Amino acid sequence: MTSKTFGHRATNIVVALATAMFLFACNKTVESPIVQVGGNTMGTTWVATLTPPTDNDRSHGGWLLLIQKALDEVDGAMSTYRADSDLNRFTGAQPGSPVPLSPHTQTVLVAARRVHRDSHGAFDPTIGGLLELWGFGVKRTNAGEAFSKEAPEPAAILAQLEASGLSKVQSLDGDATIFAENPSALYLDFSAIAKGYGVDRVAAVLRENHVENFLIEVGGEVVTGGQRPGGGPWRLAIESPLPDRPDLTARLQLTDRALATSGNYRNFRELGNGQVISHTIDPRTGRPVEDAPASVSVLAPTCMEADAWATALSVLGRQGLAIIEGMPQVEARMILMAKGREVERIRTTSGWPKTPVQSAE
What we know:
Blueprint: E1 15-17, H1 20-26, E2 35-41, E3 44-51, H2 60-78, H3 86-91, E4 99-100, H4 103-118, H5 128-133, H6 138-143, H7 154-163, E5 170-172, E6 177-179, H8 183-186, H9 194-208, E7 213-218, E8 221-225, E9 234-238, E10 250-254, E11 258-263, E12 268-270, E13 276-278, E14 281-282, E15 287-288, E16 295-300, H10 303-316, H11 320-325, E17 331-338, E18 342-348
Antiparallel strand pairs: 1-9, 2-3, 3-7, 4-6, 5-6, 7-8, 8-11, 9-10, 11-16, 12-13, 14-15, 16-17, 17-18
Helix pairs in contact: 2-9, 4-10, 9-10
């Protein structure tokens, strides 16, 4: 799991989007009105480009408010820094006390359990305590605390590992209500899946308002619907995680697909002994992943699914690609690193798009 928290802007997401300027440059004769709006949410930024329905009477500001409201509802339910969020109410609950969940959190928890199972435990939203222990957690980040130069003691890692585990989150009425024997030790953190769900929620709200053509991005997580202005698939670029290696950039054309990218190259720290550790913590060992991929991108029908699997694959590495091969409509691209932080190779699943967009012109 990685420390993509709601409390600060995630620096490990490396997706570059086609902006409205880019779109208009590609399509100088666009008959339909185009709306582009943006704002802040979940400790990062969002932007949406859409073509309203022909009978639309909503103003530019009206679209902005509609989208911001959808994102605020998700943030309010699963924020790691709002005391009244579902997750913080659970963390602060008395042992065994039931905590009702909003429909948003319930949906995300069900999906998290599924990815946890299918990734053999590589995805686990209960390891917030381990992230704190290694210096990558929400509390340390929000407090502006300095990194420790020492690795945690093995006994502390073991204790936190034994306290965590998604199986310890018990359910009533499906997942509408949850409880745990020691909820404070679990420290639920849905940052590696909730942002993707937020993008899905915006897509759902737009479709409910008869918008078929749109692109939504929240902190690098993307959903596309229909066609870009002027026709044709939406054009995206996944930036190279290495500034001096633009050849690693991937260009895609997407329609009705979700894309999420998780990276490790820009978020690591060095211990006093010179050891460099990744912010990706393996929930199964409680320790940073060695030789974690520099970047993992996932295409899926939903952004929630893509978001969670981008995190799980950051833990699993190349072995995780075999799991994705068996999942319908899900594809992945992974930039692997060799010793010395040099790029070893790029690996993809068999269905990853093979035809790149060569130019934005």
